[in-house]
Amino acid sequence: MDIIVCVKRVPDTSEADVVITGKDIKKDDLPFEINEWDNYAVEEAVQLKEKFGGTITVISVGDEDANEVIRRGLAMGADEGVRIYDPAIEGSDGVTIAKILAAAIKNMKYDLILTGAQAGDLGEGIVPVALAEMLGIPHATLVTGLEIQDGKAKVKRELEGGLMEVLEIDLPAVIGIQTGINEPRYVSIMGIRKASKKEIKLLGLDDIGLTPEDVGEAGSLTVLEELSIPPVTKVAEIIEGDPAEAASKLAEILKEQGVL
Amino acid sequence: MSEIFVLAEHRNGELRDVTFEMLSGARNLADKMGATVTAVLLGSGVNEMAEKLKSYANKVLVVDDPKLENFNAEIYQKVLSKLIKDHKPVVTLIGHTAFGMDLAPALAVELGLPLATDCIDLDAVDGRLVVTRQIYSGKVNAKVALKGDQFIATVRSGAFSIEEGALNGEIVTESVTIEDVPYRRFLGYEEAEVGEVDITQADYIVSVGRAIKDQENIPLVQELADVLGGVLACSRPVVDKNWLPKDRQVGSSGKIVKPKLYLAIGISGAFQHVAGMKDSGLIVAINKDPKAPIFNVADYGIVDDLFKVVPVLKEKIKEIKG
């Protein structure tokens, strides 16, 4: 079975003091990583390959830095890496990113396409479902369980409130992977170093039959106008002091509030 | 007059809250756009639900067909795209839910319409839709403009509060020929496994997030829950990593809880988590990131390392309780 996994390199803002500069945030000091959802998608692909054989191609849209997450995928067990880039793609919205991926993937051989259900930076959740529509194949997103049998995928989609939807779709298909579907393997620095010897195929817009007008802001139907820090509606009363002092004060507060 | 479509979301015969939230938000948008609000209800045997929608919309557009009984993104897409082509609504709103996320992007691509997802606010500027959505895990708001004259947006659950409706929309039933979708089959629903602890019944909840770092550290917070006479719950990453079972997860894809005390430890406070605990009596957060969104929900906070705070807190509570 031949699997394509779409991955994205994203900044980790979880512990960062985010600073807005124009239509972006300051990223110089931020650590970058593979999008968490995509990491689960790569692991799922590797587990399927271990079971059924075949190949895994990791593909990413982005500048040279994106090689980092492609290499990580190679280190986890992927066979090929493909990166698509042109300066014109900056400002592409989610649907346009799907368009770029579709243009490249339609010429490739695949039985299954895995993506993260969404990305941790922009959180749009557009790519898997839009990509499937463009390729004219079935899809399912927010998938927390995947079984392949007889050219079909039996998937569990995570709904709200702990409920799951079970469905069956024909392959090839695009599956948007939700976190928690598996336990992504550890990737060693050595593994990544070894994978860095493998050549990553670079595709430009010409190679995939698109023009600069098809991508970026020009090719997108949505445009980012402005960023702002969300207004704060409520702020917790912060209990000051060193950890021991703060903990003691908190215990007293809990007593006063009648919860102890 | 142009219409705003709001796709009613329902499961097992019940309309979901997000439907009424979107209809409430759509009324304001309709005023700004000089449009009317149409609730679009696709399903099988949906008369009762249609009646419930009447007061929230100027029109309830119903397609009632056995093929629409269970949610199937591809079948819903076919019916909805036909309705959008026929009626040309200026805006179509869909919940940013497991249902909407599986449907909206394909619908937008099929129709060639702009799509903004997970919107928390909707505005009209010169007849165009301008939305607000959150990026970088809620740390930044992005204002996004949609091009053209027809738009699709998915709306975050809880983004709008439900305003009682005073309208009396006419119920209009249309029949649409629905092609079979042999390549996608709904097999059923499955409940997550139920363990021995029901966190929704607890008065005191100690809830732990990603910052607990390792399964080895779970006993530390379990002990705190024990001295409080409460239960241990968690946010999504802890379940993803298999450190605690799924039935302990608080949030939109887990459980909704309203304990007397919710003690959030090492939880950043993503909106999906907050949706599951914001109505708790007293909320206390311990997190070393002072900018963590959890501090905008909590009543009290300690900005510090949980591994330094929790052991002392446990001893102090033990002392007080004697």
UniProtKB/TrEMBL annotation, chain A:
Residues 22-212 form the Electron transfer flavoprotein alpha/beta-subunit N-terminal domain. It comes from the Archaea. InterPro entries: ETF_a/b_N, ETF_b, ETF_beta_N, Rossmann-like_a/b/a_fold. Transmembrane segments: none annotated. GO terms for molecular function: electron transfer activity. Coiled coil: none annotated. Keywords: Electron transport, Transport. Belongs to the ETF beta-subunit/FixA family. This is Electron transfer flavoprotein beta subunit/FixA family protein. It comes from Candidatus Syntropharchaeum butanivorans.
From TrEMBL, chain B:
It holds the Pfam family ETF. GO terms for molecular function: electron transfer activity; flavin adenine dinucleotide binding. It comes from the Archaea. One of its GO terms (biological process) is fatty acid beta-oxidation using acyl-CoA dehydrogenase. Residues 4-190 form the Electron transfer flavoprotein alpha/beta-subunit N-terminal domain. Keywords: FAD, Flavoprotein. PANTHER family: ELECTRON TRANSFER FLAVOPROTEIN ALPHA (PTHR43153), ELECTRON TRANSFER FLAVOPROTEIN SUBUNIT ALPHA, MITOCHONDRIAL (PTHR43153:SF1). Belongs to the ETF alpha-subunit/FixB family. This is Electron transfer flavoprotein subunit alpha. It comes from Candidatus Syntropharchaeum butanivorans. The lineage of its organism: Archaea, Methanobacteriati, Methanobacteriota, Stenosarchaea group, Methanomicrobia.
